[in-house]
Amino acid sequence: MKWMAAVVIVDADPAEPAVDLISNLFYDLGLSGVVVEDPDMEPPEGWGENALPKPDHHSVTGYFPQNDTLASNCSKLEQGLAALKQNQGISFQIFYREVDEEDWAESWKAYFWPEKLTNILVVKPTWREYTPAEGEMIIEIDPGMAFGTGTHPTTALCIQMIQEYLKPGDAFLDVGTGSGILMVAASKLGASRLFGTDADSLACDIARQNLLLNQIDPNRFCVKSGNLVDTVTESFQLISANILSEVILVLLDNVQKALAPGGILICSGIIEANQKPVAEKMKATGFQILEVRSKDGWVAIAGKLKSENG
Length: 310
Hints:
By secondary structure, the protein is α/β, with parallel strands linked by helices.
């Protein structure tokens, strides 16, 4: 498959807020990962002998598949950038280049490094070395081209909440599982049974590979392709949904059927502007809000399903 790299060079001081806003444009278009280049970045492990040279500019690159959605995605990206320029004063340059999957599959790996997501959980790309400190647990991820490495704020927020609310022995469901990182985290934290769903069959394949990569017993997990909870017939003590706000609002119409009495739902992937409508619908569909966390303009909400007796 051929991909189109959309490279946005950022001209702003400070650059970091502009980079976050531009990254969000890509995420809103359904990309699970972007490449951010920072000329000032120094990874804690050092660059190593075979590292790429430092970039000259701050930039954000997203990769669109060259299919019938390409023209629409590029148009929406350019409209979003124009709005940022008008409303935020962010100057930028954008250019496109074709990329073969084989060429990109290796070069993008230079930009991903181990990252500590909680006090005990560290996500590590399979191609990096990392020596865990005492008490740390490693999540090995080989995300494939279509998915990020799990270091986006929405994923970090979700994993922090899973660590907070998962009890050892709980059954765990991940709606929109992507690379499967949340299922792996739940397993490390003591979940007894793991179930993941995703509308994308490629995501399901990658999630299964990552679960096996982390030496999780195949008898403990199931990954199915399907829409939200349509294929789910069991109940779970904890459900996570790290998906777009618009999809969460649809999920809330019937996610209750998959929750055990008193079960907890963690919703992430929510931009701050959409926090209120998501929280309001959670309350209207029987959830008591337990906690709201935010990071870099993103929000995660945990809610407990009320019993019929209140």
